[in-house]
Design a protein that fits this description.
Elements lengths: L1 H21 L3 E6 L7 E6 L2 E7 L7 H19 L6 E6 L18 E5 L2 E5 L14 H9 L5 E5 L5 H8 L4 E6 L2 H13 L7 E5 L2 H6 L8 E6 L4 E2 L8 E2 H13 L2 E11 L8 H6 E5 L17 E7 L2
Parallel strand pairs: 3-4, 7-8, 7-10, 8-9, 10-13
Antiparallel strand pairs: 1-2, 2-3, 5-6, 11-12, 13-15, 14-15
Helix pairs in contact: 1-2, 3-4
Length: about 325
């Protein structure tokens, strides 16, 4: 525990200082830096979100519990926060609809800030908080390049990327997610930032079905963001999504809705992902992963991969 305390204090001086200089209030402070403490520790403007990575079966369960208790005893003191401002969860592989299932019913939402945007987060009630911290540079890029653009956000989650597009001056936007909870959350995030919800619509939809639907085929967008889950077999979906197998179809369908000089930002977090080579022969494809990782995620460079895809001239 003393080792963890020292590492956290060191990271506060490096990553914490960097975040303050950048005006970033939500960031990853620690990501299993030491194998003895397999935790991800994130800061949310003075509150602490701790995720325990599930231990392999070779690790004694009782020993793992004791190690976690040691960690939780030193984190508040090392970071100068009250214990009640810390939330701890166990991180497990997401399948089916469990990313949508409630973990608690605290209803404790609060606002955080990112590059001039206001976003609502909840550290307790869901597996995720409402904000994927690793995609911060992607959202900032969208904000800087969305002026007068028609923006489409597929698998939009809580709509944070759309908020950045709106703040950046997007002319209109459409955000799609199959979760009623997240659609409502996205609408609230947009309203917090003064968006006109008639021009910036959020709809509950199965993105696989929407992309395959001929009725939506004539809609065109200048900037599209698509960050699908690795796998989903939700009962609300028309089929099963396996990102490795299905991504060529998803990319082609998204490109069919992209204006001639538009851009698709395609990302996913499947660690063994390989982009289908045929896409590189059909479109202009550039991997930009390295440019989409801020200082707080460079220790975990495999947390996501990201490409810019354009029509060939």
């Amino acid at each position: 525990a003393a080792m963890l305390r020292n590492r956290l204090k060191k990271n506060v001086k490096t990553i914490g200082q960097w975040a303050r200089k950048q005006g970033i209030g939500c960031y990853r402070l620690y990501d299993a830096d030491m194998p003895e403490f397999a935790l991800a520790i994130d800061i949310y403007e003075g509150r602490v979100h701790v995720q325990e990575y599930a231990a392999p079966k070779s690790v004694d369960e009782r020993a793992a519990r004791e190690r976690l208790a040691e960690a939780l005893s030193v984190i508040p003191e090392a970071l100068g926060v009250e214990p009640e401002d810390m939330v701890c969860k166990q991180r497990q592989r997401q399948t089916g609809t469990n990313q949508y299932e409630k973990q608690a019913v605290s209803g404790e939402f609060f606002r955080v800030h990112e590059h001039g945007c206001v976003l609502k987060v909840n550290l307790k009630d869901y597996l995720d908080t409402g904000l994927f911290l690793d995609h911060r540079p992607v959202r900032h890029w969208i904000q800087q390049h969305s002026a007068n653009q028609r923006f489409l956000n597929l698998f939009c989650y809580t709509g944070a990327a759309t908020v950045h597009a709106v703040v950046g001056g997007a002319s209109r936007s459409l955000s799609l997610d199959m979760s009623k909870t997240y659609v409502g959350w996205a609408e609230e995030n947009l309203a917090l930032n003064g968006a006109d919800l008639k021009k910036h619509r959020v709809e509950q939809a199965d993105c696989l079905a929407w992309l395959a639907d001929r009725k939506t085929a004539d809609q065109r967008f200048d900037l599209i963001f698509m960050d699908p889950p690795t796998f989903s077999n939700s009962a609300r979906m028309a089929g099963v999504l396996d990102i490795q197998k299905d991504h060529p179809t998803l990319v082609r369908q998204a490109m069919a809705r992209l204006s001639s000089d538009g851009l698709l930002i395609f990302s996913n977090n499947f660690r063994r992902f390989k982009l289908d080579e045929t896409l590189e022969s059909e479109f202009e494809v550039a991997e930009v992963t390295r440019d989409t990782l801020d200082k707080d995620f460079q220790r975990n460079a495999r947390i996501h991969r990201c490409w810019h895809i354009r029509h060939k001239a």
